[in-house]
UniProtKB/TrEMBL annotation:
Gene3D superfamilies: 3.30.1380.10. Residues 58-67 have a biased composition (Low complexity). The keyword GTP-binding does not apply. Residues 53-87 are annotated as: Disordered. Coiled coil: none annotated. The keyword Membrane applies. The chain crosses the membrane at residues 20-47. This is M15 family metallopeptidase. One of its GO terms (biological process) is proteolysis. It comes from Sanguibacter biliveldensis. It holds the Pfam family VanY. Keywords: Membrane, Transmembrane, Transmembrane helix. Residues 102-181 form the D-alanyl-D-alanine carboxypeptidase-like core domain. GO terms for molecular function: peptidase activity.
Length: 225
């Protein structure tokens, strides 16, 4: 029974050493590939940092925001995360609410500076609306559409989420009425201008500090840019 095995030449040794050599070669190739991979990884890692890493983190951030995790939910009732200002609350540009923290930083700084001067003039100046989420603006527009019946009429009073400067953080509505008149007079010192003739409360950064404000547009449906 064992005759075949015992009489036949045993080719195991040369075969085994051949396999071992092959394995050694394969192992060498795998190790070399891993080494090349590591080198490539560290080189690309170098190339990416720090600028690319930083821009990758900030690319989805909207104007005036330095946090991405605070994006408002797309369903449910509107909250402060949408830029809602709780009813009966008088907030200033310095408040810690998304309505003002998500404003364009230059606009927010200008309104804060103007508020400080207004306070010295014994004139309270509050932000009644600042930044708004697109969903918030969309609801306001839908309400205007229901009230005025046509898109043409609704757009004279409420901009769409696509055109609203509140959604981009580049507009504030202020109050009370006396503060609107105060800012109409003193706003240009800070670059702040009333931009729509039919919205005495609506201000944007529209000139250089101390400059002259551009001519007002009749209403929000006439977007100059
Ligand atoms: Zn406004």
């Amino acid at each position: 029974m064992q005759t075949t095995n015992s009489t036949a030449p045993r080719p195991t040794r040369p075969v085994r050493s051949g396999i071992l050599t092959l394995l050694a070669i394969l192992l060498g190739i795998v190790l070399a590939a891993a080494l090349v991979g590591l080198v490539l990884l560290s080189v690309t890692g170098w190339l990416r940092s720090p600028d690319e890493t930083a821009s990758a983190q900030t690319s989805s951030v909207s104007v005036g925001s330095d946090v991405t995790s605070d994006e408002p939910p797309q369903t449910g009732p509107l909250t402060e995360a949408d830029g809602l200002i709780p009813a009966g609350t008088d907030i200033t540009a310095g408040a810690d609410l998304p309505a003002v923290t998500r404003l364009d930083p230059a606009l927010r700084a200008a309104v804060e500076a103007a508020t400080a001067e207004a306070t010295l003039d014994d004139q309270p100046l509050y932000v009644t609306t600042g930044w708004r989420s697109a969903r918030y603006q969309g609801q306001l527009y839908d309400e205007a559409l229901a009230t005025y019946g046509s898109e043409e009429d609704a757009r004279q009073f409420v901009a769409t989420p696509e055109t609203s400067t509140h959604v981009t953080g580049r507009a504030v509505d202020i109050g009370p009425l006396d503060a609107m008149y105060w800012l109409l007079e003193h706003g240009p010192d800070y670059g702040l201008c009333q931009t729509y003739a039919n919205e005495i409360w609506h201000f944007e950064l529209a000139t250089t500090p101390g400059g002259t404000c551009p001519e007002m547009l009749p209403d929000a449906s006439h977007l100059g840019g």
